[in-house]
Design a protein that fits this description.
alpha/beta; 12 helices; 21% strand; four-stranded antiparallel sheet; metal ion binding; hydrolase; Peptidase_M20A; single chain; globular; Aminopeptidase; 441 residues; hydrolase activity; six-stranded mixed sheet; Alpha-Beta Plaits
């Protein structure tokens, strides 16, 4: 069943585990989501000052301590804490910026429009809807006559959609993350769509290469008098793609279950063979290729940019060595620039993963009568802020109910997904405290 199917259980019913904290009703979450969507935070330019002011005031009005952290004044980040009864801290992270939109292409208002059980708007599912659910859960916890079993922290960041330095990187480099001292983090990126549910426990590493080929210019009517740089570059790139995609990647110890879950999750989307290749071999995408000055000239230079992705835990140095060995056969082709990141993962059986997956299963299983209520513990095909948190030593997963309209025209989230998210984020501090066995100071 999809998030919009009827016959679902009410995800906002009080849960005895919450010690009297009742998750907010659906309309409250929808109201908060509409407030956030109405504030244009398209990135670029990525101006999040107004939405940060709004969230800061919302939390301050409820007595929650906040702190602003910024390297770019136009892109502030906000952190907040709700003290709990133990020394452990669970961090919720969400980004306030969105990708741009062209209002002329939309049939609904990109700054928010409700139509039945759908809330349309840029960022509705990526990720102002989940962020609103986090705020609604925080409001419910603060207004209850009880303290959460762990400290609940919230980080609202900027600059995520462009992978800029003003967001999570600023939190890490400024020491704000150290001050929060989170023991675990949940990022509200949409990981569940169309009745298929998952918690993202890993991301892939990447190598971005810029290759440059040198040739000898000549007139296009006499190509044999020159050396075509584009031809040289194409030959090198073609061999590089064949060799790398045929390379078996070493699987980190204990990571095989995540690969199998990932293959099962992506099989309906990519097909069984391609889903398995995605996580057992490098993938190589030729993103750009440029060269030449005119159609009647043999090009003397050419450049290409490649995006190489690697399964979590695979060391980029070994793959870069393969790249250099391959290019050694092409003396006219060199690496002009290279940047890379190492994929990261949280073990599939860790307390954090178990907390999120089992809580989600408890919410969706009664409603998804046509399915098995399965929540996959999978890797993402790319990478984002979770990688930064994990490399900073914070166990991190991504989870949110939503739709498959991320970055699309007429992006939307369902009211059911919003309510489910609020129920999830309201429950997690209690379930996680139970999983780690630390419920008091």
């Amino acid at each position: 069943m999809t998030d919009t199917d009827s016959g679902e259980s009410d995800p906002t019913e009080p849960d005895p585990l919450l010690d009297g904290v009742e998750p907010p009703d659906t309309e409250r979450v929808v109201e908060l989501a509409r407030e956030l969507i109405a504030l244009d935070t398209s990135n670029p330019p990525g101006d999040t000052r107004a939405i940060t002011d709004w969230i800061d005031a919302f939390l301050a009005d409820r007595g929650v301590d906040t702190e602003r952290v910024a390297t770019d004044p136009m892109k502030p980040n906000l952190v907040a804490t709700i003290p709990g009864t133990s020394t452990r801290t669970l961090l919720y992270n969400g980004h306030a910026d969105t990708v741009p939109y062209d209002a002329d292409e939309w049939t609904h208002d990109p700054l928010g429009e409700r139509d039945g059980d759908r809330l349309y708007g840029r960022g509705a599912t990526d990720m102002k809807g989940p962020l609103a659910a986090m705020l609604a859960a925080a409001e419910a916890i603060v207004e209850a006559d009880t303290d959460p079993p762990v400290t609940l922290a919230l980080a609202v960041v900027s600059d995520e959609e462009t992978a800029g330095d003003a967001g999570v990187d600023t939190l890490v480099e400024s020491g704000a993350l150290d001050r929060l001292a989170p023991d675990a983090c949940v990022i509200g990126e949409t990981t569940c769509t169309n009745g298929r549910h998952s918690v993202t426990v890993a991301d892939r590493g990447s190598i971005w290469l810029t290759l440059r080929a040198e040739g000898v210019a000549a007139h296009g009517s006499r190509p044999s008098r020159g050396e075509n740089a584009i031809d040289r570059l194409w030959e090198a790139v073609s061999l590089l793609r064949r060799r790398l995609t045929a390379r078996d990647l070493p699987v980190p110890e204990g990571f095989s279950p995540v690969i199998e879950e990932s293959v099962a999750y992506y099989e309906p989307i990519l097909g069984a063979a391609e889903a398995r290749r995605t996580f057992t071999h490098p993938t190589v995408n030729l993103g750009t290729i440029e060269g030449g000055e005119s159609v009647n000239t043999v090009p003397s230079t050419a450049t290409a940019r490649l995006d190489i992705r690697l399964t979590a835990g695979v060391e980029t140095a070994t793959v870069l060595a393969d790249v250099r060995e391959c290019l050694a056969e092409f003396p006219a082709v060199s690496i002009a620039d290279a940047s890379w990141s190492v994929g990261s993962y949280e073990p599939a059986d860790s307390p954090l993963v178990s907390t999120v997956a089992e809580t989600a299963e408890a919410i969706v299983a009664p409603a998804d009568a046509a399915g098995d209520g399965r929540v996959f513990r999978r890797s993402a095909t790319g990478g984002g802020d979770a990688k930064t948190f994990r490399h900073a030593g914070v166990p991190t997963v991504e989870f949110a109910f939503g739709t498959d309209t991320v970055h699309a025209v007429d992006e939307y989230i369902t009211t059911t997904a919003l309510a489910r998210n609020a129920g999830m984020y309201g429950r997690l501090p209690w379930v996680w405290a139970d999983q780690v066995g630390d419920t008091s100071t």
